Amino acid sequence: QVQLVESGGGLVQPGGSLTLSCAASGIHFRVYELGWYRQAPGKQRELVASITKATDTNYADFVKGRFTISRDNAKNTVYLQINKLKPEDTAVYYCSAGLLTPDNYWGQGTQVTVSS
Description:
mainly beta; 116 residues; 11 strands; seven-stranded mixed β-sheet
């Protein structure tokens, strides 16, 4: 059974930082493409960042320079470091995994709220 479990969300002031973690089980982690998506209220889910099994990374234009995705194959965990948070970053953040594209398996999501 595949499980992706996110953690690390919370309430943060504008300009603050968070690190989201996603622990995976039930998959051969190191061969999977991984991603982080987010969904704000009333909006569609959108890709934030992805990382290949070769650790090549890709970012949405709206987060470049502020977000960093990384993976630790020894811990079966993917991370999303978020800096300089803005109120518009408020959303539920989901991690994902897939063999070709990171959209076959999904976590339950973790809420990030940016507010003063």
